[in-house]
Amino acid sequence: MKIKLDWISGLLIIALMATLIAFFTGVFPYPYGWIVITVVLVFRLTARQKPEQ
């Protein structure tokens, strides 16, 4: 399985890492948005794997 990353996926990965880093450093009491960012990233990566017809 080959995963193609584009700039939107890259931004989602950066936002996910920033949210988790902010949580672990104590900036956020709860990592707001990590669930939403993860779901959007998974949908984005699976949509790009489907062959175009």
Please tell me about this protein's structure.
The chain is an all-alpha fold and 53 residues long. It has helices at 7-24, 34-49. Helices cover 64% and strands 0% of the residues. Helix 1 packs antiparallel against helix 2.
How would you summarize the topology of this molecule?
Elements: H1 7-24, H2 34-49
Helix pairs in contact: 1-2
Give the strand tally: 0
Listing every helix as H and every strand as E from the N terminus to the C terminus, the arrangement reads HH
Relative strand content: under 5%
Q: What structural category do the secondary elements indicate?
A: mainly alpha
End-to-end separation in angstroms reads: 19 Å
Short description:
The chain is mainly α and 53 residues long. The protein has 2 helices and no strands.
Defining key terms:
mainly alpha; 0% strand; 64% helix; single chain
